[in-house]
Amino acid sequence: MSIRDKLDLRPSENGHLAEVRQGGSLAYDGDFLKVQQDQVLLPDGKPTIREYIKHPGAVVILPVFDDGSVLMERQYRYPLDQVFIEFPAGKIDPGEESLVTAKRELLEETGYTATDWRYLCTIHNAIAYSDEHLDIFLARGLSEGKADLDEGEFLETFKAPVSDLLAWVRNGKITDVKTVIGIFWLEKVLAEKW
């Protein structure tokens, strides 16, 4: 009998790689993040512990103006003690559809609304230690309004051409993974390759 049979995995061509949860508990319950600690069986039948951050998911918005320039943000990020250049983004509230989150976050953070929304993809930015996913949306038909930042949220917005964004990725000025991936998507979408 194979280990797959012993563990009673769901049929899958990759089932032989699966780790099977045997039990677990919440190791830390924060206001925003939670840390789960699970006991699992590895594919070879040996037990081990897996710790990971539970995250509600988030959205990333790629706001493109009619002239092809992009609305970006500068925001200080405490864990790395520096200001990052990022796309507008935010966490999905419980029960909220990701497109609703994207529209809300764009308005709150930048004051802009968009008439044309397109879902591009979902990414998993930290697969070794988090269940977080990010849904990326392209937003066009932008209209300016008044931002309504959350209490304790400080950022500034600016416009930049895609060519600058690509150069900033290349020279290390942009390192935020969601923004790097979004820029590469944007380059392909605007060139009508994707």
From TrEMBL:
Keyword Ubl conjugation: no
A GO cellular component entry from the record: cytosol
InterPro entries, A to Z: NUDIX_hydrolase-like_dom_sf, NUDIX_hydrolase_CS, NUDIX_hydrolase_dom
Highest taxon of the lineage: Bacteria
Domain (Nudix hydrolase): residue spans on this chain: 53-182
Keywords on record: Hydrolase
Entries under PROSITE patterns matching the protein: NUDIX, NUDIX_BOX
TM ranges: none
Catalytic activity: GDP-alpha-D-mannose + H2O = alpha-D-mannose 1-phosphate + GMP + 2 H(+)
Obligatory cofactor(s): Mg(2+)
Any Gene Ontology biological process: ribose phosphate metabolic process
Pfam families recorded: NUDIX
Family affiliation: Belongs to the Nudix hydrolase family. NudK subfamily.
PANTHER family: NUDIX HYDROLASE DOMAIN-CONTAINING PROTEIN (PTHR11839:SF18), UDP/ADP-SUGAR PYROPHOSPHATASE (PTHR11839)
Protein name: GDP-mannose pyrophosphatase
Natural source organism: Undibacterium terreum
Lineage of origin: Bacteria, Pseudomonadati, Pseudomonadota, Betaproteobacteria, Burkholderiales
